[in-house]
Each structure stands twice: as C-alpha cells, then as structure tokens.
Design brief:
Length: about 160
C-alpha cells in the first residue's frame, strides 16, 4: 500500500496506524487503497472545476456515512466510524480545507446536471445562459480558503 507521508500527517496518527497494517491479504489491501485514494483526493488544492468536483465527491463520500463507504471500510477490515472521525478531526484542525471557488464549482455542476435533464429546448437554453453567467462569476471568485469548517455534505 502506498500512502503519501503528507496524507498520513494530515489525517493523523490513528488513520496511519489503521491503514498501514502489513498483515493483510491482497483483497484487504485493495480496499484500503480505495479508502486511501479517497482521503488523498480530499487534499486536492487546485480550484479548477474537475479537481474541485473530485475533492468534493471524496469529501461527501466520507462524510455521508453511505453504505458504500461502510462496505469499503469493512472489506478493508477498518472501522468506518473511526475513519470518518479521523477525517472530521483533520477538518477541525483545518488540515483539510476548501476554497470558495471549489465549493462554487459544486453548485455549478448541480445546475449543469439539472440543465442536461431538461427535456424542453427553450427552457434548456435559458438554463444554459444562466450557467454560463455563473461560470464567469466563478472565475472571478478568489481562491481564498473558506473560514468555516465543513463537516457536512457539500451540495
């Protein structure tokens, strides 16, 4: 298993001790790698659209207590609540942060998905114009960190 020293320092000692157990079979290692990858994605610093959406998806997956998250932890023989708590502590220490622009890209993506589901072409055009205007506004948003701690799902 490969976990960067930055990730291990950022998420914390309990996380590091849990995921780096050497006495595992290959399947358990695979599922731990899935978990490590998700935690690593929460450390993305880029405020471009795609990296921001990847970061927020990873954040939401860990925070939401989804069955998928619980299963991946279980298959990797990890306690899902412990893993989630490690992440929340990293958020509280501001070791994992989000920029205003990263969060704005999530709203943009929701608007875009809504537009693509619209069956009427006239309404779709109107929504497209609003989305284009919002995209231009996002580009003006500074990449400063959000001051509040985000311990909920980002919608």
């Amino acid at each position: 298993m490969v976990a960067s020293p930055l990730l291990l320092r950022t998420i914390g000692l309990k996380f590091a001790r849990s995921v780096l157990d050497k006495r595992l079979d290959p399947e358990q290692k695979l599922w731990r790698e899935v978990l490590i990858n998700a935690f690593d994605e929460t450390l993305i610093t880029s405020s471009d659209r795609k990296p921001s959406l990847i970061k927020i998806a990873a954040h939401n997956w860990i925070i939401s207590k989804s069955n998928d998250f619980r299963k991946v932890c279980e298959w990797g023989t990890l306690d899902s609540e412990d893993m989630r708590e490690c992440y929340i502590r990293a958020l509280q220490r501001k070791a994992v942060t989000f920029t205003q622009r990263q969060i704005a890209w999530q709203k943009y993506d929701s608007l875009y998905q809504d537009m693509t589901r619209e069956p009427l072409k006239e309404i779709k055009k109107i929504k497209r114009k609003k989305i284009d205007m919002y995209r231009n506004e996002i580009k003006k948003i500074p990449t400063t960190l959000v001051s509040s701690i985000v311990i909920s799902v980002l919608a």
